[in-house]
C-alpha cells in the first residue's frame, strides 16, 4: 500500500512515523530502502522483528479501543512474524523469542494507546497514520519474504 499524495507527504514531514529503539543484533534482517514507502522511509535499517512486534502492539491498542477483529488478526500475524524473524535471525528458541518480542509488543501498545488518546478513529488521527505505516511494513515484508 504505497501512498504518495502531496497532502500526505506534507503531513508526514510534520509527524514522521517513528518507532521506539530496541536491541539490535548483526544477524537481524532489517528493512531495506527498496521495501520502504513514504510512510516508512524513516524505518530503513531497523530490524523487521522490532517493527513487526511494535506494530502488533499498535494493532492491539486499536483492537482494545475499537473492538475490530481485523485489528486483532493483523496484530497476531505481525507478532508471529516478529517471533519467526527472531528464531531465524538469531537462532533463538521460540520461548526466548516470545519474551523478547513481548517487550516490543508492550512498547507498541503503549504508543498506540497514546495515539488513540490524542484523538481520531480508524480514518483519522495519528493512530491511523501509524496503522498505515505498519501495513506498509508488513506488506513490503510479506511481498519479499512471505
Element layout with pairings:
Blueprint: H1 6-14, H2 48-66, H3 69-90, H4 94-117, H5 125-145
Helix pairs in contact: 2-3, 2-4, 2-5, 3-4, 4-5
Task: Explain what the structure shows.
By secondary structure, this protein is mostly helical. 65% of the residues lie in helices and 0% in strands. It is built from 5 helices and no strands. The chain has helices spanning 6-14, 48-66, 69-90, 94-117, 125-145. Helix 2 packs across helix 5, helix 3 (69-90) packs across helix 4 and helix 4 (94-117) packs antiparallel against helix 5. The radius of gyration is 14 Å and the shape is globular. The two termini are 16 Å apart.
Brief summary:
With about 150 residues, the protein is mostly helical.
Q: Kindly state the mean pLDDT as a whole number?
A: 85
Would you report the number of β strands?
0
**What is the CA–CA distance across the termini?**
16 Å
Q: How helix-rich are the residues, as a percent range?
A: 55-70%
Low-confidence stretches: 1-16
The fraction of residues in strands falls at: under 5%
Helices and strands, in N-to-C order? Answer: HHHHH
Largest sheet, in brief, is: none
Tally the helices: what do you get? Answer: 5
Shape verdict: globular
CA gyration radius, whole angstroms: 14 Å
Structural class: mainly alpha
Amino acid at each position: 500500500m504505497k501512498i504518495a499524495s502531496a497532502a500526505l507527504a506534507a503531513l508526514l514531514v510534520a509527524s514522521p512515523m517513528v518507532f521506539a529503539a530496541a536491541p539490535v543484533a548483526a544477524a537481524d534482517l532489517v528493512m531495506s530502502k527498496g521495501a520502504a514507502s513514504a510512510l516508512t522511509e524513516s524505518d530503513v535499517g531497523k530490524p523487521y522483528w522490532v517493527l513487526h512486534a511494535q506494530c502488533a502492539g499498535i494493532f492491539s491498542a486499536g483492537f482494545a479501543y475499537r473492538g475490530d477483529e481485523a485489528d486483532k488478526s493483523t496484530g497476531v500475524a505481525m507478532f508471529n512474524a516478529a517471533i519467526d524473524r527472531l528464531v531465524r535471525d538469531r537462532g533463538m528458541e521460540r520461548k526466548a523469542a516470545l519474551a523478547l518480542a513481548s517487550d516490543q509488543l508492550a512498547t507498541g501498545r503503549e504508543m498506540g494507546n497514546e495515539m488513540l488518546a490524542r484523538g481520531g478513529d480508524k480514518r483519522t488521527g495519528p493512530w491511523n497514520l501509524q496503522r498505515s505505516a505498519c501495513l506498509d511494513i508488513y506488506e513490503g515484508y510479506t511481498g519479499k519474504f512471505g
